Amino acid sequence: MKNEVEKLLINYKTLEQFKRFKEYGNQELSMMEDLQNNIVENNSESPFYGIYVGHHLIARMSLYKVSAKYDAYFKPPQDYLELWKLEVLPDYRGRHYGKALVDFAKSFQLPIKTNPRINSHGFWEKMGFQKAKYEMERDLGENPLIWMPEGVEEKEQ
Amino acid sequence: MKNEVEKLLINYKTLEQFKRFKEYGNQELSMMEDLQNNIVENNSESPFYGIYVGHHLIARMSLYKVSAKYDAYFKPPQDYLELWKLEVLPDYRGRHYGKALVDFAKSFQLPIKTNPRINSHGFWEKMGFQKAKYEMERDLGENPLIWMPEGVEEKEQ
CB 3.0–4.6 Å: which of A31, A134, B95, B132 could bond B144 by disulfide? Predict the structure, then answer.
């Protein structure tokens, strides 16, 4: 396999590999239950993208396209990507796998919003992300970061 | 001062004390800017509640009432409280200050939703919170926990 970003399919092998990521949570548990209960088919699409080195999944992220009608971040209001669970396994850090995933997300040429984990701001800044102006009723406990392709601006408050 | 939960007012002293909490972020920075620019008055209300020991703020949380029309968690749809940034300073942990804050939030007798930090599930379980059934389009990267007073149920999917 090549070190390229690929869309991950829901199956027992992928879900097993997910367990090595720190941000394993309700999302993965719910995918596992849906698979076990035949609510989703084996190898159905997931919102996850990942990078394999050999047969090992060593980096991943989730991407979801939010419809323009729910957009509270950009001007004009438009479809944007919510990016979460970006994570590279410890042994593979510092080799630009995180950047490869972010570049992949940017390639859709839609604005991107993410909620960074504590202490990850340096990374996101290098990726060209900026703090969204904080609005309590929208952001509550979040510290959203946004990235905008040419021609898109942040919504005014 | 007594060890009681009190509503925190926005002023330079409180904002300075906030810096000792790990989850200091955009919300606090934005409050500081609003104060400096006279967008909010000194001692205006904040969504934060806290506990003082002597003159030291040693625990805090944010609470915000979300209107029933945005409720995607409970049955019947109703006003609920979003709780975030619950945090007790390290030297004061294990003395039930966290529980005091959660009990205060429960005293409004509204359902509560929170997004726990990694490794805090044990605490929330003791507080009677349960995992909300994961819905990707609603929860994305979140692992929401909910608490319901008598007579309230989780929304069906």
Answer: B132
